[in-house]
Design a protein that fits this description.
single chain; about 450 residues; alpha/beta; TIM Barrel; 2 domains; eight-stranded parallel beta barrel; 15 helices; 18 strands; Glycosyl_Hydrolase_39; hydrolase activity, hydrolyzing O-glycosyl compounds; Glyco_hydro_1; GH
Length: about 450
Amino acid sequence: MFNFVFATGIENSAPTINGGRERVDEMEKCRFYQQWRTDFELLQELGLRFLRYGPPIHKTWLGDGHYDWTFADETFADLKARDVLPIVDLCHFGVPDWVGNFQNPDFPRLFERYAHDFATRFPWIQLYTPVNEMFICATFSARWGWWNEQLSTDTAFVTALKHIVKGNVVAMRAILQVRPDAIFIQSESSEYFHADSPEAIGKAERFNSQRFLSLDLNYGHDVDARTYRYLLENGMTAQEYSFFLENHLRRHCVMGTDYYQTNEHRVWADGTTSASGEVFGYDEITRQYFNRYRLPVMHTETNIREGPNGDEAVYWLWKEWANVLRIRNDGIPIVGFTWYSLTDQVDWDSALRENNGRVNAVGLYDLDRNPRAVGTAYKALIANWNKLLATQSVCLALPVFLPSEQDDPSVRAQQDYARGLLHVDRIAEAGAEPLEPSKDKVKPDAPG
């Protein structure tokens, strides 16, 4: 059991640009393919046991039911040997060329099989983010025209969104068939839109309703009437909407919230937006998301560039951590924090729209794998807070186990109990009277 999860991530974005002719492979740009052993050693240097990481989707998923597991086998075996538990990021902003893009109605069905086959090959893995930042992926691909299908209409946006979220839902179901005690950490961008003037209030309210769309669908949360009308007017059918209300898997989820300086927006009278910088901050915006869904929370992404003073990222880390503690002290069940990513990234200053090769100094380490000041600060933060957070409260602990603990009887008992709950769910969905899980199964200790 873990009272708090400290993590970092390997940036594995892989969208296409230029009409789908060019792929932006962040793993390649950040030299992960060559340096992954060193990167995994750096995790241990930092004192981390959790890593947001997934195999490169375009190099692994070669066709429906056809895979090249070579790189995944090697890297995940190494993580297992190091007793590091990955939070597996299966789809991060892009799909293989043979799938096309997120307008493809077959994406959910195809992705469901990919998720099932991955979980079958790596049954020791318990934590997943099937599709990363679903709202951002749909927005950048089909509303702003930056990636993948590069469309910019409401219909394209709704189409991408419904395919992405359905893919996430059916992937969760597929993984649970293999690993019934799997936990899904959504990792979604937490947004807010500020009206600049009275004329902009209505537009800001509309944006603030739509920012919840991916999680509303994923968690089966009814949208308001205006948003429902927007969905129907732009290609979602009533039957498709009902699917999301009837197939949510909240019980298995932690709501991951990502926050950067660019997550808050200023809305102008003509409906255009611009970055407002940090106004409310992570604390207030996370409260809004928590009050809507009432799920355990994890801060799954943040960073800022190291600037000319050298301490800008260190200060941002301190400020985000202060927000996490404020949320925790106020009783919101926040279970983890992530500085994203382990190393610097490349070309995010253009939101991956251009292949310029510009290094973005946001990592715990630079691309030569030398520690940045924020890396040293994060290592100290983990060492200073780990033990205290483990003893502060027994009210919530994630039922998560490291690779070395997988054969423990308590883990097998947890899986047996979770398998029984899935059986109950299937009976209930079929319309039969649900039964209690078998009483001869040992129910593991659950979070309070």
